[in-house]
Amino acid sequence: MARDRFDILIVGGGHGGAQTAVALRQQGYEGTIAIIGEEPELPYERPPLSKEYLSGGKEFERILIRPEKFWNERDIAMVLGERVVAVDAAAKSVTTAVGRHLHYQQLVWATGGNARRLTCDGHHLTGIHSVRSRADVDQMMAELDHAARVVVIGGGYIGLEAAAVLAKLGKQVTLIEALDRVLARVAGVDLSRFFEAEHRFNGVDIRLSTRVDCIVEVDGRAGGVRLATGEMVEADMVIVGIGIVPAVQPLLDAGAAGGNGVEVDAHGRTSLPSIFAVGDCALHHNRYAQGAAIRLESVQNANDMATTVARFITGMPMPYDALPWFWSNQHDLKLQTAGLSTGHDHAILRGDLDSRSFSVIYLKAGRVLAIDCVNNVKDFVQGKSIIGLDVAPEDIRLADPSVPLKALLEA
Known about the structure:
21% helix, alpha/beta
């Protein structure tokens, strides 16, 4: 009979869940551990899905977080292909969609989120895809040979990365963004305009301030996108990248505090006893967001929160206080971001946009909040050291690429 009781039960087989198990073993935890994942695959990296995996540059085995042997050697059980639909905090048990009951001493919720779906007419049609799982991308790849025209809805990281790959594969790509610029929620105007120009140069038709009215059916599948203006954009495939919905409903139904995610404290504890949460689904107060309660959708956040929880469980507590950082590869550009630019009152361009190697520094009341670096690893590495500090560097020095950012700490 398969084991149904574990000291630590981790719900979610993404970065956060995998790192929780890894960190527990690294810190000497000897109790029983299981990861229960909705997908049938071992934990794998998500960022390559919209880049190297979609383009065919990496086979699936190369994006596994760890090979099967790793998990076996560390006695970390895998319960794959099962979705948790209910949590009983009093009984310390979870129930899966097939009616299986698993018991725990401590539960770590690391489910991330589900791709936000369109709600307009035609949203259910075949040929509409998200980029959230291996199965999503495999289905897209299976249809690509017969898809000359692709419409991407959403101008965030996922939409732009998918558009870049598909343009390189020779597809006719139209990207539709409801706001007046791409990356509007995460970057300043200079960076948005730069990436818009780059995508257009590479053949992507970017439509800004444009809303979707419906998806039009042609021969039983998505055959085009009708815009609010009445214009019809023909498509053989539609990709939707409009964010995620945190997968926390079973915890909320069990009484956990939350809404847009599940609320956690500085150690990853939810309001329910013996239940933690990490990663994209964890709503936490973050000092890099001026103390606001936020969710962070990044590998860095998932890994660091997982380590925080593992340290607490193993009796070595250290509150979560990690600097957020992100990256995105589009065409031949590598964008690296440190900090959170939300709420900035001033942005400084460091370098020359035309050089395609520059940085944008975001400030509030003279203090550095964040930095975006395009093909500029040196600034990214050094820029992290000046974010969130009680220093107010002079604008003229910040703007001068000949002045190393680390030198500003010595001024």
